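Session log. Operator J.P. requested a structure for one protein chain; no other inputs attached. Running the standard single-chain path with token output.
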Amino acid sequence: MKFSFLLLSVFAPVAAFAQTPNFTITGNIGKLDKPAKVYIDYSDTNGKGKEDSASVVNGVFTFKGFITGQTTARMSLDHEGKGKPFSIYSPGADVIYFYFGPEQIKVTSKDSLSNAAWKGSKIYDEHTAFNKKIGGSIMELTAMYQKEYAEASPEDKRDEEFMKALNAKQTELRKQRGLKMVEFAKTNPNSFFSLVALSEAAGSYTDMATAQTILSSLNKDLQKMDMAKELQQRINAEKLTAVGKPAPAFTQNDVNDKPLSLTDLKGKVVLLDFWASWCSPCRAENPNMLKQYKIYKDKGFEILSVSLDSKKEPWVEAIAQDGLPWLHVSDLKGWSNAAGRLYGVRGVPACYLIDRDGKIIATDVRGEKLNEKLAEIFKN
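Structure written below.
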């Protein structure tokens, strides 16, 4: 999750009141002590987000903050003091994803976050019940797959048919989970987790037209939430970003804080590239994009990369490290990036190839697919 700050009121007393903590998460993880550290990222109902960290002292850590309504969060525990990235991405990382509200929560475990007991969170309890109804969380299904694979014999792991069956089983479980999410959203219009379910299932387990119908039937307060607005933008984006449609226009600042508009590039063939400094697949594609840029730049090819970073420093560092000479913009709002929302981007890398007239001619063109498309366009 990547974030920016809550909007501030022009009235100082009101702003001060708005920042008064309305939630507390107190953890007690066995006998852990410094340098152990816990990290949390969370976003509020307006799509804004925050990140925080707390040292573990005598097994105890505490977070306090302000949120409006329910929020999604990620919490990770760095047992050895190696830093936030290690706590999230290292093999066997102790990281959990959850929802909570303006509550006083206690998290207790002998040794880790992943097996901790939660008390004081109605939202957490509702999320647990929701996951049971739909067949488990993605994390639980993934853990099930990894357990079955780990317990398989060396012979089975090398057996193509065994692996095919194991993967097919996981695919079917995820499909059934997706269909159950759609049904849950249809039959529970007042539940926050109907919105969560629909947001995840739309486009994968139900078409956008059906998603629109279900979204319109949800409680009006749910429809006002940022998650609902983001889903509505994705529904709209499916039509707006179809091949043959004019590429939706936007303006964002470049690394020098100067505004740059997509429309400024009309007359060029443009690869609109959504990426982030923390996205390994994005950066793995950069050398190929650089090669293509050098070949076709003088023939009228341009790349406009939109970063879904939330901080300027890592964004600028990644551009320098990878030696990317093309155009770069960002509003530094992470997953709430306005251009990303406009295009319905839910994952990176994502890209759109735009012709000289400003129309979308291809989507998801990377690697050899991009190379072939550019060779076709510039063959003359």
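Operator note: The domain at 251-377 is CATH 3.40.30.10 (Glutaredoxin).
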